[in-house]
Amino acid sequence: MAKQPMLKFVTTPRDMPEKRDAEVRNKDFDEIYAEYAAAKAEEQASRCSQCGVPYCQSHCPLHNNIPDWLRLTATHRLEEAYQVSQATNTFPEICGRICPQDRLCEGNCVIESSGHGTVTIGAVEKYITDTAWEKGWVKPVTPAVERKESVGVIGAGPGGLAAADMLRRAGVQVTVYDRYDRGGGLLTYGIPGFKLEKDVVMRRIDQLEKSGVTFVMNTAVGEDISFADIRAKHDRVIIATGVYKTRELTQPGCEAGGIVRAIDYLTASNRASNFGDTVPEFESGALNAKGKKVVVVGGGDTAMDCVRTAIRQGATSVKCLYRRDRANMPGSQREVQNAEEEGVEFVWLSNPLDFTGDAVSSMTIQRMRLGAPDASGRQSPELIEGSDYAEDCDLVIKALGFEPEDLPTLWDQPELAVTRWGTIRAEFGTGKTSLDGVYAVGDIVRGASLVVWAIRDGRDCAAAILDDLMAAKAVAAE
C-alpha cells in the first residue's frame, strides 16, 4: 500500500525556516529568514490536511490553489508545483516573502484550530519559486500570436506589472510609464531589503522586459508627458499609480527640521543600502538614522519598516509611538515581534502633543487610553489628562499612512471620477473608470492596501481589457 504523503500535521510539528539571530541581522539589510532545504520544504508541505473546503485558498485574494501545490511539493513534483503556483499569481516569490500570511492563508488554515500549528504556506511558496528561478523554469513570456492593440500602464508597481504580464501573455503591446528610475514601485523603494531583497524584484522587471514590455522610466505623468498624450498613444490605459501622499502631523512644531516622511526615508535607505546609489540626503544625515534618537509615529507595516531600518542604520535608540495598544495596531504582529527582537521599543497608547526646536530636539508625548468603540468597531483612543512627558529625539519619521494624489487636477482630467476619499472610482472586478477606455487598479482604487490585492486587481483588469478588445474587434468586423 502506498505511503500517505499528506496529513502529517499530527506527527510533524510546524517548523519555519531558520531566522537569523537578531544581533546579527539588525546590522545588515539581508532577508532575515533562511531558505528551506528540499527535504524540509517537502516535510512542511506534507503537513497539509488537504481539507475539502480549503479556507487557505478562499481567504487568499488571488485564490491560489494552495493545497495542490503543497501536495506537489510534498511528492517531489516541484516544477509542477511552480506551474500551479504561478497560474494564479504573477509574483509568487514576492507574495511568499511579504504577504501577511498570518492574516490571510495561514491565519485560516484548518489544522491551526486543532492545535497543531498552521502549515507554513508562505515559506513553501517562497521556496517553490526561488527554486524555479534557480532551475531556469521561469522564462520570458512568448505569446502565441502578437496583437496590434496596445495598452499604456501608468505605474510600475505590483498592480501595473501584474496587468502588463497578463496582457503580454495574450500578445498585447504594453508600455509601462513610471516616475522612478527603476520599476517595482513600493516593492523596490518602499519595502526594505530585509523583507524583500531587491534582486528578487529586479529579475521580474528583467523578465517582463525580455517578454516585450516597454518601460518608460523617469516619466511623471502631468509633467513629462500628459495623460491625454498617453490616451492618444494606446487603445486602453490602466492607472496603477498607487498612493504616495503622506498623511501629515498637525501638532505645533511639526514643520521642524528632522521630521520626515516615511516614504522619503525608506526610498533613501533602499537606494543607498540596496542599490549603492549616491543619495545626498542620506549622505548628509537628513534621511539617515545613524547616531540619532529616532521616534517613528504610526503603527502600520510602514512604521515597522521604518523602525527596523533605523536600527540597521545605527540609531542610538528607536521608539515606535502608537495611539492604540498592541492588540489594535494595524501592522503585522510578526513584524512587531521581529522589531522587538532587533531592539525597537514600542510605546503603546501614546501620541505626540508638540515638537521642540528648529531642528527637532524633543517632543511632548501624551498618554492615551482606549474608550468606547467608534463607527468601525475599534476602541477610540482618549487622552489621559496630566500624563504628558518629554522625549528627546533627533529624527521623527511620519508613518501615518498614505492618501491618493489629486489626479483629476494633476492630470487635467476633471471628468475622471473619484470617491469622497480621493481614490479613483472604478467598477468592481474590471477596473473601468468614468473615462472611456481607461481603467484603474490597486491602491489608487482601494486606498493603501496589500500587494496581493494590487496583483489581483491587475490580473482582473487585464482579463476585462482582453474581453473589451475582443468585443471591439467583433463590432469593427460587422
UniProtKB/TrEMBL annotation:
InterPro entries: DPD_II, FAD/NAD-bd_sf, FAD/NAD-binding_dom, GltD-like, Helical_ferredxn. Residues 151-458 form the FAD/NAD(P)-binding domain. One of its GO terms (molecular function) is oxidoreductase activity. Keywords: 4Fe-4S, Iron, Iron-sulfur, Metal-binding, Oxidoreductase. Pfam families: Fer4_20, Pyr_redox_2. It comes from the Bacteria. Residues 25-136 form the Dihydroprymidine dehydrogenase domain. NCBIfam families: gltD_gamma_fam. PANTHER family: GLUTAMATE SYNTHASE [NADPH] SMALL CHAIN, GLUTAMATE SYNTHASE [NADPH] SMALL CHAIN-RELATED. This is Dihydropyrimidine dehydrogenase subunit A.
